[in-house]
Design a protein that fits this description.
Length: 205
């Protein structure tokens, strides 16, 4: 199936994520690792920028809004605790900074995606939310297994989550492409119907 629903945000993500995955092969090279982290940051910012275009403001109740804030604060606190642990392990302060930027961007991405889902409650918003959750957990596992505890099970889970995020993003684009085609078909039907109605009115006159 051809997927025409790729705007410049998603195109930027696909390019930067590809470059990040490519440079991650040279993980032990400090300079290349810096570029790898930069590409990942650009990819996450692209996803965040895209979902912000779908965010139309808060349209749910106060109770649910308070729940979202509490969840956001708890997640931020847990990631801060992980940040403090990694700060004592990672010797390069730039890598620690990238960890902070990555996690903050992904937490905001998940938070906004959840808000968009609550506002729209569509299949596309669910796919995007699950994608965001897959990326944030895979990134946390990436730092844990590289700088704290290395275990093959963590590697497999991280790869599974990251691959799952890519798959959900693909299905998101496919789903949006189908919705766009349906909308175009409906508009064309409405246009033909309106023309036929005009012709009938002219004939009656």
């Amino acid at each position: 199936m051809r997927c025409n629903y790729i705007n410049w945000y998603l195109a930027t993500y696909l390019i930067s994520a590809f470059l990040a995955d490519l440079t991650s092969i040279f993980f032990h090279h400090p300079k290349i690792l810096m570029y790898c982290n930069l590409f990942y940051l650009v990819s996450y910012l692209s996803l965040l920028g895209f979902v912000l275009t779908k965010f139309k403001g808060i349209r749910f109740g106060m109770l649910l809004g308070v729940y979202l804030v509490v969840v956001f604060v708890i997640n931020t606190y847990l990631l801060y605790q992980l940040y403090t642990v990694l700060d004592g392990i990672i010797k390069n302060p730039i890598m620690v900074m990238f960890f902070g930027l990555h996690t903050v961007t992904l937490v905001i991405l998940a938070f906004v995606s959840f808000a968009v889902y609550l506002n729209s409650d569509t299949k596309s918003s669910i796919l995007y939310l699950v994608m965001a959750l897959c990326f944030i957990f895979s990134k946390v596992l990436f730092y844990i297994r590289n700088y704290y505890i290395y275990d093959w099970s963590l590697v497999l889970i991280e790869l599974f989550l990251y691959s799952g995020g890519l798959i959900f993003l693909f299905y998101y684009m496919v789903n949006k492409n189908k919705a766009k085609k349906r909308a175009q078909k409906i508009r064309s039907y409405n246009f033909v119907f309106a023309k036929q109605k005009e012709q009938q009115q002219v004939l009656k006159q």
